[in-house]
What we know:
Helices cover 46% and strands 11% of the residues. It is an alpha/beta fold. The chain has two domains: 5-271, 7-stranded beta/alpha barrel, CATH 3.20.110; 281-400, no CATH class. The strands form two sheets. Strands 1, 2, 3, 8 and 9 form a five-stranded parallel sheet that branches. A five-stranded mixed sheet has the order 4-5-7-6-10, with helices on one face. Strand 1, helix 1 (20-40) and strand 2 (46-50) form a beta-alpha-beta unit.
Amino acid sequence: MSRMYWTNFLHIYQPPTQTPEILGRVTNECYRPLVAILLRYPHARITLNINGCLTEQLVRDGYRDVIDGLRELAARGQIEFTASAKYHPILPLIPEEEAIRQIELNTEVNRHYLGTVYRPQGFFSPEMCYSRAVAEMVCRLGYRWIIVDEISYCGKLGTVRYDRLYRIRGLQDFYVFFRERFTSAGITYGSLPTGETLLRRLGAAIGQKRYLLTGTDGEIYGHHRRGQEQLLIDIFASGALDLCRLTDLFALFQEKEEVDPLPCSWSTWEDELAAAIPYPQWAYPSHGLHDTQWALTRLAIKALASADRSAPGYEAARQCLDEGLHSCQYWWASCRPWWDTGMVERGAALLKQVVDAMKSQLSPELVCRAALLEEQIRKTARTWQESGKARTLRRQYLETHPGVSSLLTFG
């Protein structure tokens, strides 16, 4: 008898600007319970991304037990890790040399702390931000597959067939897996809090030879959604679905289809793709904050590229740029619907520190330009907050995108 396979992809991450208090809360509400649940059910299987930035924070703040638990789960074959970029940058929007550096840093950190069980075959581009250039780069780096949102298949939701594997046209034996959005959103936004609700949603499809590929932030289990971990417990305990890791699908499904996925993210909607806006939460056209943020980002990258690597301050500047490319500052500036002035200001400050650390080597004009851009970002963010513009933009977005049914506290 045929049965559905559930391939559950989880992504866990905290930005480099995260506070120890919030990290502690997320660890106790989500990371520790999640590891404990997986250890309790030896037949449970997931695919997991943990960014090296979070790995280092967990070690630094005394949560090595989470890392130890993940290592044990991987050794038992219950989880497989994906590769990614250490500080969670939007890879299609940064230079390739910076993207490769972030990927290599991520591998270095995770291999150091997780050991030999960290041997990813697949790749998670932060926020599932996909472009052809990213796929080509990841393929060159030796990975076998990349996970993206289903909207990337053809620009429409609900068109992917989950009874086959998808190979990217023109790339040698390189595959793409499409995350199913409808069920993933149900888990994320709390409409599928238990195993029973998930099975009811799936209905007769449970008896079909196909796979269900969900992909969410791992933090929804217990942190963003209190009690959401009950869904995992119910499914693991019931045995109602066969469970597998993403790479296991190669042995389970033989039919293949060639595709050329579209640029997108896991937050992009059909109207945004139709308007040629693939990454709206991070780079929306004529967006008063995004434009200035990316101007400062480009300036920081240019400043570091022109600096003498042996000069005093270079290593500090390099670290600030690595961290400063994190995606959260753009996300929280977007008002689609996410908004947080503190995250915006902290991100801008990190990028300005790149220039400040190297200012003895840079022209006064460039140093002044960086200061002006950071000040403009701060002033614009505060003006939007105080004038109510941010609230208006968020409301407009939610009115035109009813699929975003709930506000969470992540980016």
